[in-house]
Structures are given as structure tokens and as C-alpha cells.
Amino acid sequence: MTHQICVMGAGPGGYVAAVRAAQQGAAVTLIEKENPGGTCLNWGCIPSKVLITTAELFERFRRAADFGITLTGNVAVDMAHLMARKEKVIADQIKGLHKLFDHHRIRYIQGSGHILKTGVIEVPQPDGPALAVAWDRLILATGSRPLDLPGLAVDGRRILSSNDALALDRVPPSLLIVGGGVIGCEFAHLFSSLGAQVTVVEALDRLLPLPSVDAACSKVLQREMKKRRIGFMTNRTVQTISETQEGLRVVIGASPFNIAPTAKEKEPVEMFVDTVLMAVGRTPNTDGIGLEKTRVEVDERGWVKTDDHMRTADPAVFAVGDVLGPSRIMLAHAAAAEAQVAADNALGADRRMDYRAVPGAIFTSPEVATVGLTEIQAKAGGHAVRSDEVLFRTLGKAQVIGALAGQAKIVSDSVTGRILGVHIIGPHATELIAEGTLAVNKGLTVEDLVGTIHAHPTLAEIMSETAMKAADRPLHG
Ligand code: FAD
User: Fold this and answer.
1) Which long-range contacts (CB under 8 A, 24 or more apart) does 389-393 make?
2) By three-state DSSP, how is residue 186 classified?
3) Mutational test site, ligand 1, from 32, 40, 166, 324, max ligand atoms within 8 Å of CB
4) Atom 8 of ligand 1 has which residue's CA nearest to it?
5) What spacing in Å lies between the alpha carbon of 291 and ligand 1's midpoint?
């Protein structure tokens, strides 16, 4: 029997689920209210990295003299050209996705879907009657959107969401970023490199305050941000923002998460800035999509609940990606991995999503990348833990490219040598984490990495050097 699979939302969760189901012979309909690619392609991973690529190039130009290059004349960023390049990268990827859908005979419908009843989704059309799509299995992949904080509403003009910040036609002279998580820190790097005076306000006690991010990475990042004159305040929250003639007046106070604020932290701080960027989290796209017509359960904030088989409480409905919220992993590749599990299970398999080795890549300066357990998590999990670090400055390649800041850390089981986690801050950390991901995923030991020859001179040597240290045979580190 051919299954009729309907996928709602064509981000990396939805479109990967659609392709995987189509590859197995299902009749697949993919519904998307905006452009395919979702947040990742249109307002997230891809546009932010296009802009960061230019920002980093610009910074390299500023350091041209260090590399023996004399630049004459003015080096400047042309924002209109940069935005046009960003749009072209997105448009090319969208074209590619449409070809992929055609290739897999996926029926793609543009419009905002809502569930009419079990087995039917309605998609209103601008120039005709609404389409009714029949399904026997539904995969929800409607993702999330930027969260507004009460009293600090985004206006798209001076108080921006991440979507707005990716479409600016000028670099604000001063920018205050509310939220020092992944998105806040990436934007801090971006706009500071482009020339803005940036300040980040974070409610918790460190930047990148995620359980998956090793505290040592936050410490190094904070040190490097200071060197680059990016201001940041931890344990603080923005209380009010008002428009004045001198710009936006921002009042910053002690964070409610800080139970024992110091006298300095209690002292309200007033700042005047040109622009504010809100990077305080996301909210699910689950309102108005007809979930009440199903047995799907959501939590108190609207995030969809599933088990690790990506099943919701309704046996005919699966869900993947950002719509599951922060209790899972809100990253594009996590969504795509969940999508493959959901599509297989919707077609009768019994697969389970494995979250043990989902890498995190953070495009700051230096870059941060993590996979597996931190030391704290490994200890809490009952492992006998050892943790070994090597600095990038010990590598020839780091000296060659003039990128010395940072380190790699391997968290391993001190009895078996098994690699439990890898935490890197440094040049190209987001590429280097792939080896750590393989190691954690396949249960490799530090001896496995020691016995693997790494090309010289490369940054990848940081992994073998750290593994050698973890095997008590340090070479340079
Ligand atoms: P989404 O990508 O949000 O896709 C959901 C889709 O559903 C959207 O296209 C939406 O229009 C559509 N939709 C919603 N409701 C309906 C409806 N009723 N009918 C039809 N369609 C509907 N992740 C990384 O892994 N790496 C990064 O470097 C990275 N950078 C990021 C930078 C920024 C600034 C942001 C905001 C996010 C970033 N992310 C990154 C996160 C990543 O974008 C998300 O984790 C990923 O897009 C989630 O995929 P998804 O398919 O679950 O949801």
C-alpha cells in the first residue's frame, strides 16, 4: 500500500522528512507557507554565515599588514552588495530545493496549512479555493520564530529580531544585544567585525550558558571578546528600552536568575545605543495550525511533545525539529536527523533518534564547537572522567595562519579511554568537530585517535595532540 505522507513546514526538518519518505515510495505532499528551507535557509544558518564570512574577510583585511600586505586606499563593506549576495545564495539554494522536490516527485504546495480533521489538511490559496490534502501520516515540522519579551517588543526599526538584523542596510554605530546565547554571540561577532560598538547583556552567569557548552569555552570566548572591545554584562537583564533624542535609552538591572547579586550587579546601568537586537529565544509555530483537531500534546509554552521515535501522542502524527523546543536540540542538522527517523517510523519502521553525538557549531571569533558530554555531564552520568586540553598555539598551522587563541578538550573515560565529549574553541572549530563527532558516535577511544595519522601542518592535529595527552604521551601540547 502506498502511504500518503503529508509534511507541514519545509525547513531542514520538513524537507528532509519529505525526501526520505519519497525515497521509500510514499506519496508525499510538502506544505510551506513561505519559502522552502525554513529558518535555516531564509533567516538563520545560511544568511548569518554569509554575513559572517564577509565580516571575517573584512577583519583579515584589517590585519593585512600582519601578513605582509600593504593596502592602499579605503577598505569598506558595501552593505547593499553584501545583502544582494546573501539573497543570491538563498535564491540559489531555494532553486536547488525545488529541483530536489521535483526529482523525488514530492507534491509541493505553497500556503499555510491547518489541520481540518484527522486525515485532512486545508491550505488556503490566494487565487482560488483552498486545497484539501489527504494524509494517513502527518509529520509536523513547523519550526519556531523569534520570541518577543513583554515590554521589550521588537519594532523592526530600532529594536530588532534576528530576522531584521539579517536584512540591515547599514551597520548600526552602536548595538546592544539582549541575550548572550548562540545567536546573540554570533551577531556580536558579526556586527563588531563590521564596525559597530557592541554590548551583550546576558541574564545567566556566562556567555553561551548552554549545558552542552564547556564553561572553559565561555571563558575563552569572553576573554577574546574583551580583546576585540565587545562589551558584555552577565547576570544582568534589560529592564526598559525607551526612545530619546540621544538614541535608545536602555536600563539594565540585576537578573532575576541571580539569587545573590553583588552590589555592582544590583546597581542599574543606563546606556544609550543606536539599535537593540533581541536574541532571547524562540517560540513555536504551533498556534492556529489545528492541533486541537488531533491528539497531539504540547507543553505549557506550545512546544510539541514526542518520544525519541518522534511520535506525538496521536499515533498518526509525528513531529521533528525546532517545533519540539529547547528540551531537544534546536539545530538544523538535529532537525534533519529527527526527520529521517520520523519518516522511517511513519512508514512502519521502529527507529529511535540518538542524541548522543549531535555536534553544536557556533560561529563566533574564535569559533566554538562541542559534541557529547561536558566534564560535568560525564561525572553526573557516573563516568570516571579525565579531561585533557591542548592550546592551538602549540600547532604549527595555528602560527602559520595567525590564529593562536583557543584550545581543544577531550573528555574521556579514565578507565576505558573512551571519548565521551569534545569541546573546541579556536580557528575552524566548527569543521574540526567532525572528527570528535565520529569518535563520540562510534565509541572510539583516545588510542584510536592517537593511532590515526593527522596531516601536518593542519589544524586537525589539535585532535591527535589532545588525544596523545589523554593517553599520557603528550607530544607538543
Ligand atoms: P524551520 O527551519 O523553522 O522551518 C519551519 C518551516 O515551517 C518554516 O519555513 C515555516 O514557514 C513553515 N511553517 C510554519 N507554519 C506553517 C504552516 N502552518 N503551514 C506551512 N508551513 C508552515 N542551526 C544550525 O544548525 N546551525 C546554524 O549555524 C544555525 N544558525 C542560526 C542562526 C539564526 C539567526 C537562527 C535564528 C537559527 C539558526 N539555527 C542554526 C537554527 C536552525 O535555523 C533551526 O534549528 C532549523 O531551521 C530548524 O528547522 P525546522 O525544519 O525544525 O524549522
Assistant:
1) 389/216, 389/466, 389/469, 389/477, 390/462, 390/465, 390/466, 390/469, 390/474, 390/476, 390/477, 391/477, 392/426, 392/427, 392/459, 392/462
2) helix
3) 40
4) 38
5) 19
Residue 289 in contact with ligand 1 by CB distance below 6 A: yes
Does residue 317 have its Cβ closer than 6 Å to ligand 1? no
Distance 163 CA to ligand 1 centre (A): 11
> Does residue 32's CB lie within 6 angstroms of at least one atom of ligand 1?
yes
The strands making up 275-278's β-sheet, listed across from edge to edge, are 159-160, 275-278, 174-178, 197-201, 231-233
Closest CA to 47 of 92, 83, 99, 96: 83
Q: Verify whether ligand 1 is closer than 6 Å to residue 34 (CB atom).
A: yes
State pTM to two decimals.
Answer: 0.97
Instruction: Render each residue's pLDDT in the chain as its tens digit; 477 residues.
Output: 568 999 999 999 999 999 999 999 999 999 999 999 999 999 999 999 999 999 999 999 999 999 999 999 889 999 999 999 999 999 999 999 999 999 999 999 999 999 999 999 999 999 999 999 999 999 999 999 999 888 888 999 999 999 999 999 999 999 999 999 999 999 999 999 999 999 999 999 999 999 999 999 999 999 999 999 999 999 999 999 999 999 999 999 999 888 888 888 888 999 999 999 999 999 999 999 999 999 999 999 999 999 999 999 999 999 999 999 999 999 999 999 999 999 999 999 999 999 999 999 999 999 999 999 999 999 999 999 999 999 999 999 999 999 999 999 999 999 999 999 999 999 999 999 999 999 999 999 999 999 999 999 999 999 999 999 999 999 988
- Based on the residue annotation, tell me whether 456 is a catalytic residue of this protein: yes
Q: Which atom of ligand 1 is nearest to the CA of 362?
A: 28
Return d(Cα 135, Cα 443) in angstroms, integer. 40
